[in-house]
Design goal:
355 residues; 9 helices
Length: 355
């Protein structure tokens, strides 16, 4: 039933995107990096699917893609609560702008309220009871965070879809303003052998976001999402600078008790099949977007540039032909003059011979 409901929701979103024109770009509009909501606050949360839509349609030419690149990806794990994991992405733009983006999967507010996330055969009854305090911490986190409201087509308590979001944060460590969560580094990646365009990272996050259903989202998928995005980036962009942090061995793990050394849940097993499929979809998404950008460019300034280039080449060919014709005429005239002189010389010699 949930799958059918989610399919209906996705279908509705696609219809909205088809009939809703893209927002007009003002002077301060930035599709790649959400603007800060005020002079002191972070940006509003934006759904990864919305970010993908904005970014994919924002480029006017192939060269625009090169303006913003990802220089570092950091993977963090909270020290408290449900030991939430998230990514902090540092991007750099031509001109010197550097921005810090926080990417994560947060369970929906409805999941927190109803605790439907814990209804799973994978969670024992005793574990469910022990999660209560952490669930309350997550409730507080949800209340503090600025959330984007989206239309619902069905009962909210039936919506088990986690929210994959991006926030442009002021804190370089990725901490959300007003909510100082202690976090430890899992791993850091940089020095990508293949330049990691911000567009490509957005598309990787989107393919991971749209790949898996929301079953067991609070525990499993909150860990699954950043790990899967990182795995897809590693496979396709080959980071040469890799640093493992103190929380690396505990990635994807949740400890029910703080005094236990052994995690109660270990959910960090990578699936090569999942990563391969997400990578395939990522490369196809990028290829399609490249074609869209090229078509858009050729229909606009690129077409004018090409038309002018063709006109210039035609002019150059015409000038070259005129020069060649003029040179041929000059050579012909010179040959005719030489022939005339030879004929006159022959006549002179004949006259001299008769004498």
């Amino acid at each position: 039933m949930y799958a059918a409901l989610r399919s209906s929701a996705y279908f509705f979103v696609r219809i909205l995107r088809a009939v809703t024109p893209a927002p007009e770009r003002s002077d301060d509009w930035d599709a790649e990096i959400p603007p800060f909501s005020s002079k002191t606050n972070d940006s509003h949360q934006q759904l990864i699917s919305t970010w993908h839509w904005y970014v994919g349609g924002s480029y006017s030419s192939p060269t625009d893609l090169q303006n913003t690149i990802v220089v570092r990806i950091q993977w963090f794990k909270n020290s408290g609560g449900l030991e939430h994991e998230f990514l902090v992405v540092t991007v750099k733009r031509q001109g010197g702008l550097v921005a810090t983006l926080r990417i994560e999967r947060r369970p929906s507010h409805d999941q927190i309220v109803s605790e439907t996330f814990a209804v799973s055969s994978e969670v024992l009854e005793v574990a469910y009871t022990l999660l209560s305090d952490d669930v309350e911490e997550e409730r507080v986190m949800v209340r503090r965070a600025t959330r984007m409201k989206v239309p619902k087509l069905h009962d909210k308590r039936q919506d088990l879809q986690a929210n994959d979001t991006i926030i442009h944060v002021r804190n370089e460590a990725g901490q959300v303003g007003g909510c100082k969560e202690p976090a430890s580094l899992i791993a850091s990646f940089g020095g990508f052998q293949k330049p990691l365009l911000l567009r490509d990272f957005v598309f990787a996050a989107y393919q991971a976001s749209s790949f898996m259903d929301g079953d067991f989202a609070l525990l499993k998928q909150a860990f699954w999402f950043p790990r899967t995005v990182v795995a897809a980036i590693i496979q396709n962009y080959l980071p040469q600078e890799v640093q493992y942090g103190e929380a690396f061995e505990r990635r994807g793990c949740y400890c029910l008790k703080k005094d236990t050394e052994r995690p109660s849940f270990i959910l960090n097993a990578d699936s090569s099949e999942e990563i391969d499929e997400i990578s395939r979809r990522l490369l196809q998404d990028i290829e399609n977007n490249d074609k869209h950008i090229q078509k858009k460019y050729m229909a606009g300034p690129g077409g004018k540039v090409l038309e002018q280039r063709r006109a210039d080449e035609e002019q150059q060919r015409r000038i070259a032909a005129e020069h060649a014709a003029s040179h041929a005429r000059e050579e012909a005239s010179a040959l005719a003059e030489q022939n005339k002189q030879l004929e006159e010389e022959v006549k002179r010699l004949r006259v001299a011979a008769k004498i």
